[in-house]
Design goal:
heterodimer; A: 10 helices; globular; B: alpha+beta; 2 domains; 9 strands; extended; transmembrane (chain B); transmembrane helix (chain B); membrane (chain B)
């Protein structure tokens, strides 16, 4: 996979090629942030719009900061999160949309966060993802598509090659297994049943 | 820690998800890059012309976007049916929802014709609806198992291995047995059998969705592939033939509806994924020029354990 340094070099030589290369490297990352933030309130089309707004903003940002050679992930993540929060507010007019960018913590998306609490929370989420992965396929993918990406079981069925009903059943059973795994790892959850 | 917090995506999780569980296909990436570039170009153009123009050209979602989305969804639906039906061969699941959606119009059209035919010809009372319902629904199940390779006779002494790209982009290998079933020497014979059980529309839907492809068109959903010299079935599919489900009820009741179609309902228990689930399939059987054929098969969960009695799409 291409490094940020290589991306910077390509962008200097050919901005167009650089933008394309940057998109290829980070589109999955941005998609995960946008889809997670908009789950439950937006459609997949909204997620697409959010992602493309994010990259348009990233390209503009890089145009105005030529010569920078720092890490890109933090910047891209921050822009993605801000864009997703903006979409979330727009798409959830009747629900509680009080989302503070500050409370969401921009540093949370920066890889060099120094806040202990954020680090603990991040470690906990990593542990949760490890537990999900330990479910094995296709159950781990089903849980991930459902809970992280916010997909409906019918969409998941298309991705994993199962029927909608089979996905629902596997989801139900995987939740139970995951609850035990989380409990075994010392992670307690409210509302996860 | 709340559930929302547990599954919240921060930078590290987003990074891992994009690498370990990517969801964007190449075609999606191309489309999304084109959208991003269009938005970026429009903005750049506006900035360059800022001194000359007073208005701002805004990015507008192309009108064709929705059409493209619908078209893409249609493609996905077809792919999904393939995926769903592929699962039949492993789990014995029947294609309830997809089939229902695909044949609604046809059923109505056929219904009108049948109504007239029934009125003009034989009275419904003279037809043994119970016998027709039993025979066709028994055949339906056998036919599905055959079409999905679970009950076909194969040569287990020779395994053909194929390398296929999975949906995640990884290369995987799949093993296949050559089919040596005397009932169906060729794949076309199986297709013919399908049309003896289903009407034209349902038969086409079932066959389109049965995870069978030509050797050169194989992908990760393919469980049967055909060549000029015979056809092959996935070994895993064949090796699950000990877990075939059966109808729970031997006594079958067929009843005529107001259109002269035979309606019958049968149930079976899932033997693979969840042995405690009972499914009920409602069949609509119509009279065609070739005889009675199944025109619709709608499946629903009948017995659901209390602990699992929820729709995650709604309850989550």
């Amino acid at each position: 996979m291409m490094t940020d340094k290589e991306l910077h070099r390509i962008m200097e030589q050919s901005p167009e090629e650089g933008r394309r290369a940057l998109f290829d490297v980070y589109c999955g990352y941005v998609y995960a942030i946008c889809a997670n933030k908009l789950k439950g309130c937006g459609t997949s089309e909204d997620t697409d719009e959010c992602l493309s707004d994010t990259f348009a903003a990233v390209f503009r940002y890089l145009d105005s900061h030529t010569g920078m050679d720092g890490e890109l992930k933090g910047i891209i993540g921050t822009i993605a999160k801000r864009t997703a929060i903006s979409y979330f507010r727009r798409l959830s007019p009747k629900t509680d949309t009080t989302v503070s960018i500050e409370s969401e913590s921009v540093s949370e998306l920066s890889s060099d966060t120094g806040v202990e609490e954020d680090a603990d929370r991040s470690a906990l989420r990593e542990a949760v993802l490890d537990c999900v992965n330990s479910l094995g396929e296709p159950d781990s993918s089903i849980i991930i598509y459902f809970y992280y990406y916010g997909m409906k079981t019918r969409q998941i069925a298309l991705l994993v090659g199962l029927s909608d009903i089979a996905v629902q059943k596997r989801l139900s059973r995987s939740r139970k297994k995951l609850r035990k795994l989380l409990s075994g790892a010392g992670i307690t959850e409210e509302g996860f049943q | 820690m709340s559930k929302d917090d547990i599954f919240k995506v921060d930078s590290n999780i987003a990074d891992r998800l994009s690498k370990e569980h990517p969801v964007l296909k190449d075609a999606q990436k191309e489309r999304l890059y084109a959208m991003s570039k269009r938005k970026y170009d429009i903005n750049e153009k506006n900035e360059n012309n800022a001194a000359e123009v007073s208005g701002v050209e805004e990015y507008r979602k192309p009108k064709c976007y929705k059409v493209v989305s619908i078209a893409a969804a249609a493609v996905l639906l077809v792919a999904g049916i393939g995926g769903s039906m592929a699962f039949i061969s492993r789990s014995g699941w029947t294609p309830a929802i997809e089939v229902e959606e695909n044949i609604t119009e046809t059923t109505e059209a056929v219904t009108e014709e049948v109504t007239e035919a029934v009125e003009e010809t034989a009275p419904a009372e003279e037809v043994d609806a119970d016998a027709i319902a039993k025979e066709l629904t028994d055949d339906w199940m056998k036919c599905l198992f055959d079409i999905h390779g679970r009950t076909l006779e194969v040569d287990r002494s020779a395994v053909v291995t194929k390398t296929i790209t999975s949906y995640g982009g990884d290369e995987i290998t799949r093993d296949f047995y050559r089919v040596t079933d005397k009932r169906y020497p060729t794949w076309e014979d199986l297709e013919k059998r399908c049309y003896e059980v289903c009407d034209a529309e349902l038969g086409k839907t079932v066959l389109d969705a049965c995870a069978c492809a030509k050797e050169e068109d194989m992908d990760y959903t393919t469980l049967i592939f055909t060549t000029d010299d015979g056809y092959y079935v996935n070994t895993e599919t064949c090796d699950t033939s000990d877990r075939l489900y059966k109808w729970n009820d031997d006594e079958v009741k067929g009843e005529f509806d107001e259109n002269g179609n035979i309606i019958t309902t049968r149930s079976h228990t899932d033997l693979d994924v969840a042995p405690d689930y009972v499914y009920e399939t409602k069949f609509t059987i119509v009279k065609t020029e070739n005889g009675w054929r199944i025109s619709e098969a709608k499946e629903k969960l009948y017995g659901v354990p209390e602990s699992d009695n929820y729709d995650p799409n709604i309850n989550e």
